[in-house]
Amino acid sequence: MPMLSIRIDGREHRFEQGISVSEVACAIGAAAEGQWLLGGYLDGQWVMPDHRIECNGRLHVVTESSPEALDLLRHGLAFLLAAAVRHLHSGSAAGSIQMTETGFAMDFDTGRPLLAAELGPIQAHMQRALAQGQAVISHQVGREEALSMLSMPDERYQRQLAERWLPAQTLWTHALAEFVLISIRPMPALIESHCAFRLMQVSGAYWNGDSTQPMLTRIHVAAWFHADHLQRSLDQLQEIEKRDHRKLGKQLDLFHFEEQAPGMVYWHPAGWSLWQVIEQYVRDDFRKSGYQEVRGPQLMDVQLWKRSGHWRHYQQHMFLTESERRRYAVKPMSCPGHVEIYKAGHHSYRDLPVRYAEFGNCHRNEPSGALHGLLRVRGFTQDDGHVFCTADQIEAEVAAFHRQAMQVYRDFGFDAISLKLALRPPRRMGDDASWDRTEGALRSALARADIAWDELPGEGAFYGPKLEYHLSDSMGRNWQLGTLQVDFLMPERLDATFVDAHGQRRHPVMLHRAILGSMERFIGILIEHCGGWFPLWLAPVQAVVLSVGIQQADYAVKVATGLQERGIRCHADIRHETLALKTREHSLRKVPYLLIAGDREARSASVTMRARRGEPSRTLPWQAFAQLVEHKPFRFNGHPRESET
Ligand SMILES: [Zn+2]
């Protein structure tokens, strides 16, 4: 039997001609026992496990532990889902598939919105198809073939997807009986014992995210290889739902939204108290790291936004208004305002870097369908800052910003942080040479500060590359928060200058930086991260004094007033309700300390303290309670030293 030379992950192997992919996988120990071998790529072409190899070539084996395997499984299940929807709702048209962290979501036009109650029969149909092991026929196809296969009215969205993907992507068609689906991925032969999935819920989604297009039904699916992974993921989803910041916002009486102001927040006293603690913390941090706080106008003439480049690149996101035949834009960002403040002074190279900070209240016209609680709003406040410096100073500024950002994240209880460098986008200002320069400056600053990072090609801002801080929350979800952007363009466009050592006028480099990003979004993330159990230093109400009966009302008020005078956020609850009811209400509000004031306590100037986390109750003089709170290592009106969640 002639021998073949097959290169697998960079290593040469020799096998007899006609060996199958699964035999090769077995021989090289690619799949552990009981693992599913999905197939492989032979010289870049997808092949099934039973494919026999006849020529020399390169092979990449895909098992369920390969990084791409979960995507292949989920695309396979999406096909089964689409086939089931078509079978049960004739004439329905399948739209696009989105991968999610726990599975996938797929859109359908069924002529009317599908109801959650209709998911059961669809799931059952999929399970049956899986159990029967129905053979799906897959083909790699060219442009003409793909488009000719997608000519029916119920294939209209598939056709649009194919047109969008071609010719950049390799396309596959998968067919089961009459049903055809187009995909950019091949499809493995699904094995029932290795497909654990649950149809979770339905929502509405416009085709292409465009509100002028039809509203489709989006079916959300959790999908994994094994039942225990699925169960873990369902438990996590349940926890995420429990911690939803919109739900906790209501329960803790922090904020609400109204239809009359889409994407803009009504902050209640408790929510605004939380906001203020965060704002004062950030303000303190600005001061300590050499930033001067400034404030620019909310409305500025459209001419300024034309000069800054925002009009051309950002116009569709700006709210506009008019007065005395002049057009103004509501600021979507604070940068041009800071440039104007910088320009109002005369700057020598000796003055640089100049660092300005602002709690910049901005508005951006996000599509109403994309708004989501505090996480996606139209009116928001950034912990914004701009550094005007020379190119030589970028490195030190990036290193200082990095140290500052990491400390802030730790103080708020985020420990898992990764850095990404977003590079030039397709639509951008400036020539390639200046992009090479700015991207190079950031890379070398990071390398010299010994910081590890990943790169995201095409995801930079239109005026410069971006350094992004991605945080992982207590439920393992990732959020992009802080950014630092290097900008050589805006100071030049708006003619900001400094005088160098030779008396020449030069343009400074501008660094745009934010650590929390949008305050609203950060608070949303924080609420979900700690599940509403704010650490003591952040808790809107740190303690409530509960009178047991009417006789102790005066004493409870006296204690609460005493604690307030010492800077503790506290009040008395002297309502004529039972202690059990009052305790339950404040526990639901997740107040860190409940202080009970009964007869015994009133006589001894003490309180019985109940901490929220199951610590045993104890009675102590109320001044001792104040000292206990004041001497916590994380001061509630200063920097926390550890996070107590
Ligand atoms: Zn900026």
TrEMBL record:
<dbReference type="GO" id="GO:0006435">
    <property type="term" value="P:threonyl-tRNA aminoacylation"/>
</dbReference>
<dbReference type="InterPro" id="IPR045864">
    <property type="entry name" value="aa-tRNA-synth_II/BPL/LPL"/>
</dbReference>
<dbReference type="GO" id="GO:0046872">
    <property type="term" value="F:metal ion binding"/>
</dbReference>
<dbReference type="InterPro" id="IPR006195">
    <property type="entry name" value="aa-tRNA-synth_II"/>
</dbReference>
<feature type="domain" description="Aminoacyl-transfer RNA synthetases class-II family profile">
    <location>
        <begin position="244"/>
        <end position="535"/>
    </location>
</feature>
<feature type="binding site">
    <location>
        <position position="512"/>
    </location>
    <ligand>
        <name>Zn(2+)</name>
    </ligand>
</feature>
<feature type="binding site">
    <location>
        <position position="386"/>
    </location>
    <ligand>
        <name>Zn(2+)</name>
    </ligand>
</feature>
<keyword id="KW-0648">Protein biosynthesis</keyword>
<keyword id="KW-0547">Nucleotide-binding</keyword>
<feature type="region of interest" description="Catalytic">
    <location>
        <begin position="244"/>
        <end position="535"/>
    </location>
</feature>
<dbReference type="GO" id="GO:0005524">
    <property type="term" value="F:ATP binding"/>
</dbReference>
<dbReference type="InterPro" id="IPR047246">
    <property type="entry name" value="ThrRS_anticodon"/>
</dbReference>
<dbReference type="Pfam" id="PF03129">
    <property type="entry name" value="HGTP_anticodon"/>
</dbReference>
<keyword id="KW-0694">RNA-binding</keyword>
<dbReference type="GO" id="GO:0000049">
    <property type="term" value="F:tRNA binding"/>
</dbReference>
<dbReference type="InterPro" id="IPR036621">
    <property type="entry name" value="Anticodon-bd_dom_sf"/>
</dbReference>
<dbReference type="InterPro" id="IPR004154">
    <property type="entry name" value="Anticodon-bd"/>
</dbReference>
<keyword id="KW-0862">Zinc</keyword>
<protein>
    <recommendedName>
        <fullName>Threonine--tRNA ligase</fullName>
        <ecNumber>6.1.1.3</ecNumber>
    </recommendedName>
</protein>
<keyword id="KW-0436">Ligase</keyword>
<keyword id="KW-0963">Cytoplasm</keyword>
<keyword id="KW-0479">Metal-binding</keyword>
<dbReference type="GO" id="GO:0005829">
    <property type="term" value="C:cytosol"/>
</dbReference>
<dbReference type="InterPro" id="IPR018163">
    <property type="entry name" value="Thr/Ala-tRNA-synth_IIc_edit"/>
</dbReference>
<feature type="binding site">
    <location>
        <position position="335"/>
    </location>
    <ligand>
        <name>Zn(2+)</name>
    </ligand>
</feature>
<comment type="subunit">
    <text>Homodimer.</text>
</comment>
<keyword id="KW-0030">Aminoacyl-tRNA synthetase</keyword>
<comment type="similarity">
    <text>Belongs to the class-II aminoacyl-tRNA synthetase family.</text>
</comment>
<dbReference type="Pfam" id="PF00587">
    <property type="entry name" value="tRNA-synt_2b"/>
</dbReference>
<keyword id="KW-0067">ATP-binding</keyword>
<dbReference type="GO" id="GO:0004829">
    <property type="term" value="F:threonine-tRNA ligase activity"/>
</dbReference>
<keyword id="KW-0820">tRNA-binding</keyword>
<dbReference type="InterPro" id="IPR033728">
    <property type="entry name" value="ThrRS_core"/>
</dbReference>
<dbReference type="InterPro" id="IPR002314">
    <property type="entry name" value="aa-tRNA-synt_IIb"/>
</dbReference>
<dbReference type="InterPro" id="IPR002320">
    <property type="entry name" value="Thr-tRNA-ligase_IIa"/>
</dbReference>
